[in-house]
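hey so i finally got around to running the thing on that chain from the lab meeting. sorry it took forever, my laptop kept dying and i had to restart like 3 times. anyway pasting the input first so we r on the same page abt which one it is
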Amino acid sequence: MNTKTMEGLVGARTNINLLNTPFRVYKEARRRGDTAVMERAMGYVNEFSDKSEEYQAEAERGMEEDVEAAREKAKAERERAVQKRKEERKELEEKIEKSREENRETDIVSVSEEGKTLLKETTGTEDQASAGTAPENTTSAEATGNKPVIYTKTGEISQPEQTASISVSV
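ok and heres what got predicted. didnt touch it at all, straight out
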């Protein structure tokens, strides 16, 4: 509560209470018929009444200032909340983009020439696959000559590179 509002309310209330005394004096003077005392008492009543109205006007100005301050504070709060939401949204988008980039990375395993020759010697899959017979430890895709397919997280077929190295997606 603004100091003007408090001062206005207290001042108005005090002057209304002080107004009762000269008004009581006015009523007593009227019963007695003393016009001079009546006029003097009515002057005090008018003075206290005017002061009460002034304090009431001051209280209204203080309340208007309170309302304006509350509006400015609410506006500032809304602006801070909007800014905070924008920052949170930006951070979230950055996290999403970072996780997408991390998911795109794949581990690549390369097999040396010695390893390839060792594989050919131990399994002999190339000769048997071309002859139509499959060894006991090969998969049906290897036996039929179809190459295995690797799918990405989006459901698309990942095309392996046409190099001599083998890549494995994890």
